[in-house]
Amino acid sequence: MTQQLRIVLVNTSHPGNIGAAARAMKTMGLAELVLVAPKSFPSAKASELAAGADDVLYHARVVDDLATAVADCQLVIGASARCREIALPTLAPRQLAAEFSTLPSNARLAIVFGRESTGLSNSELSHCQRQLVIPSHPSYQSLNLAAAVQVVSYECYLARQAKVAEPVASDELATAADVARFHTHLQRVLTRINFYQPDTSKFLMPRLQRLFNRRYLEVTEVNILRGILTAVEKQVK
Amino acid sequence: MTQQLRIVLVNTSHPGNIGAAARAMKTMGLAELVLVAPKSFPSAKASELAAGADDVLYHARVVDDLATAVADCQLVIGASARCREIALPTLAPRQLAAEFSTLPSNARLAIVFGRESTGLSNSELSHCQRQLVIPSHPSYQSLNLAAAVQVVSYECYLARQAKVAEPVASDELATAADVARFHTHLQRVLTRINFYQPDTSKFLMPRLQRLFNRRYLEVTEVNILRGILTAVEKQVK
What we know:
alpha/beta, elongated, seven-stranded parallel sheet, homodimer, 7 strands, 10 helices
């Protein structure tokens, strides 16, 4: 759980969206939620939609105005799809996440989401240093509030994870020699069952090799395939 | 709007989630929604939460089972957080998006989301070539269904936006239905040659499915594989 990223929801109309936003946050390791003048909170609907993230709701702070909500933050970013007369510098969630991942450990970032219907006012945006714009299809750009929180939280989580990610080992992989032995075995059996004739089916073996070469084969898989070939040989002897 | 990416929701309990998923899709330029045995649909709650994406709901197709939902798709990916005895190769939303952005223009991708409570069953996952895992914080990994659809649709939208070249058509690709027929044929032959016994070799067929599902199969390849099976059948009769 990071204490460095705060989600601020301004004047939210539907308590269900507050609960769903809390859930979205917690799935991505975020815990700090501040609500600016919510229409209805606490609320059974919020708790219901928070599901297992009711602790985020329980610790949410309710304040009267945006200035109070972000007072102790070093970087304040307002999420807004609307064009403004005086535009702030914009950034996308992935750029924001990159900033977050390199945030000094003593700095605190707030991401501010406006009301469902009309977003953030110009006066609210004036508390923000940048404007976050979530890419969306021109034909319909209206992300649900909690869905927007999910996308942004997800990007921030990934960016933080990327700094510590370890490569994961797969199951034991077959060597080129294992695979070559399998190809020889396959050709022998296909000849035995009269499926392969060297003179007429020139492309068959290369095609099959390409098929089985397309991805790493595991040792177990080669063993199964050769087991099948042996079973066929027993039947046709 | 892309016609190449289909969202499939299996056995969804809450119609609100169907509506919210439709909204999430439309914000990212997706239009094709297939519902497998939804608990309640159509529903006023779904329409309410779809907001301006009610056209996605209106055109949603309702089917009885997952096989039908994905029959004409070349790549089927199941979203699931649960660990399985026989793991499919996993990929993250960003990797999936990269695949989507280079999908041959004649191929169709389905992303399958399970029920809210229990996700996808093992039998449903067996229709999938890969498993999509959305990164999430270990302390709470339960993304809301529509939130998961939002994250995945967002990644796919970004990847398509970023791509420079038009996808090119490959050789004709086998559909899920083609591949399913091959699997049935394979199981019949393996039984016939005493390689497969349903009681004792529980993991054999899932393992073989995983092997052949790892990459797009071409129609020609499926024809060759089935030709081999037929040749074996002739020999052992």
